[in-house]
């Protein structure tokens, strides 16, 4: 059944770190150290002309290296998925936005992590395929990545689900979405597609994945967790044979439909020998010609990548390589791989007599005499006197910067946290108006309850205040 040109050599799992890329620019030279290595000490002091030549040559080499490196990875296009389903585990944060648009760490959106990974890996042709609840995601992507940070040929192109004379209705799944966008994705003659879910928070150098893919001459390379913990979280599992070739892939269908995870129920076990099972990160490198053949010739009606195309490719004998990711940090202060987002030009946060510990504060906040501990405070948040916020996430305010009540507003409670309010172990979504002396503490220790009509839900014991909700003065939740 399989076409011979689709079947390549055996692919192996390698846990050793990839060889350093020859295209990585070398550290900048230090001429003194360079000279001190000279075999005949003491070294002759170089003339100004020699120094100039040395610097010139070194600079030219670095530039050439950087250019080659960029060219190499520009032959990859990233396909980042927005969201395709109304069943999100992060509801109600996804009531009005897709998962990738959820605000994180004060100033960012979740999708910034994946897009920044691409940019930092010199992959600057980025297609974002979005569908469900995509308004704020589309708006963020198109405003944040309008070209300034990308290379000359780089772009982030948002392709929202659309209808045409040939295609009716929504994207039916990830494979269907790619198939229907092939006419755009084929615009550049790239060699590989890097497929990425847009809702993951991690830092990863995709170059290593692509280098491993190219070295092994695989048709498809999948990224798996190096430790086995992912299994417990209900991830899809790749099963390998003794030679580390992919034998089978099993997706946990429970995962995409349930709102909260329960460890026992989500265990997927292929094999008693757990060494064979590797949790999938949902990240794939697929050769462009293989992707096109799979979508148009072999499985022209398949809708889903993970449950139809990948298992289908395995059944065809298309060789798949696995690369392990054993650790991936997510420092926001890494100068070499920054996290990008929309520049908003907000004023610095104003803190007046507040006590803040172990917290992250976004831009443009006004924090009065409050106490904040173990909390993420999103941009444009206003917190009143004597408020106490602990172990919480306050997402801030969206588009406008409110310090008082404007004319025509239907409530006298301003956006932000009112004086004397206490919030513990809660998430307050954007534009929420928390009145004065409110207590959001889950006083009855409820685990799960839907109180949407009152502006909140409780999920896993955490109170989540819904976007733009109004919690009146003196409320105790
Ligand atoms: N029609 C559509 N239009 C636009 N976007 C759509 C879409 N249908 C789905 N998406 C989005 O595409 C991304 C990938 O979704 P999948 O359903 O393929 O895998 P999922 O993310 O559930 O699990 C994957 O990631 C986990 C790790 O988190 C792995 O364990 C698992 O095996 C792997 O499949 C998600 O962001 C999803 O919202």
Automatic annotation (TrEMBL):
Signal peptide: none annotated. Residues 86-308 form the Nucleotidyl transferase domain. CDD domains: ADP_Glucose_PP, LbH_G1P_AT_C. InterPro entries: ADP-Glc_PPase, ADP_Glu_pyroP_CS, NTP_transferase_dom, Nucleotide-diphossugar_trans, Trimer_LpxA-like_sf. Keywords: ATP-binding, Nucleotide-binding. It comes from the Eukaryota. It holds the Pfam family LbH_GLGC. The keyword Zinc does not apply. Coiled coil: none annotated. The keyword RNA-binding does not apply. Heterotetramer. Belongs to the bacterial/plant glucose-1-phosphate adenylyltransferase family. This is Nucleotidyl transferase domain-containing protein.
């Amino acid at each position: 059944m399989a076409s011979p040109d689709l079947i390549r050599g055996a692919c192996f799992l390698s846990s050793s770190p990839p060889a350093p890329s020859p295209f990585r620019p070398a550290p900048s030279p230090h001429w003194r150290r360079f000279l001190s290595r000279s075999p005949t000490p003491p070294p002759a002091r170089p003339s100004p002309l020699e120094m100039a030549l040395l610097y010139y040559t070194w600079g030219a080499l670095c530039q050439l290296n950087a250019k080659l490196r960029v060219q190499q990875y520009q032959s990859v296009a990233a396909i980042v998925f927005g969201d395709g389903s109304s069943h999100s585990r992060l509801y109600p944060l996804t009531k009005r936005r897709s998962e990738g648009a959820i605000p994180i760490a004060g100033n960012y959106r979740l999708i910034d992590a994946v897009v920044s990974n691409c940019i930092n890996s010199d992959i600057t042709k980025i297609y974002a395929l979005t569908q469900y609840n995509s308004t704020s995601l589309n708006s963020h992507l198109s405003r944040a990545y309008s070209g300034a940070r990308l290379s000359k040929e780089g772009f982030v192109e948002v392709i929202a689900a659309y209808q045409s004379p040939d295609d009716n209705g929504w994207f039916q799944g990830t494979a269907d979405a790619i198939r229907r966008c092939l006419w755009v994705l084929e615009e550049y003659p790239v060699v590989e597609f890097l497929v990425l879910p847009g809702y993951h928070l991690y830092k990863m150098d995709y170059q290593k994945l692509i280098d491993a893919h190219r070295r092994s001459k695989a048709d498809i390379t999948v990224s798996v967790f190096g430790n086995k913990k992912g299994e417990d979280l209900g991830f899809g599992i790749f099963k390998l044979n003794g030679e580390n070739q992919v034998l089978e892939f099993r997706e946990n269908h429970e995962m995409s439909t349930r709102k909260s995870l329960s460890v026992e129920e989500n265990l997927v076990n292929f094999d008693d020998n757990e060494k064979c099972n590797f949790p999938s990160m949902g990240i794939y490198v697929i050769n462009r010609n293989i992707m096109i053949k799979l979508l148009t010739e072999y499985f022209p009606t398949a809708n889903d990548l993970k449950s139809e195309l990948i298992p289908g490719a395995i059944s065809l004998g298309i060789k798949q390589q696995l690369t392990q990711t054993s650790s991936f940090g997510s420092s926001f202060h890494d100068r070499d791989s920054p996290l990008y987002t929309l520049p908003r030009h907000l004023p610095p946060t104003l803190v007046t007599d507040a006590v803040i510990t172990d917290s992250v504060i976004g831009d443009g906040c006004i924090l009065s005499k409050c106490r904040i501990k173990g909390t993420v405070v999103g941009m444009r948040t206003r917190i009143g006197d004597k408020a106490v916020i602990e172990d919480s996430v306050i997402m801030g305010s969206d588009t406008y910067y409110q310090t008082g009540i404007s004319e025509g507003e239907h409530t006298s409670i301003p956006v932000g946290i009112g004086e004397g309010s206490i919030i513990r172990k809660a998430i307050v979504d954007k534009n929420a108006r928390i009145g004065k002396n409110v207590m959001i503490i889950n006083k009855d220790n409820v685990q799960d309850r839907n109180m949407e009509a009152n502006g909140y839900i409780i999920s896993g014991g955490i109170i989540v205040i819904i976007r733009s909700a109004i919690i009146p003065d003196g409320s105790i939740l």
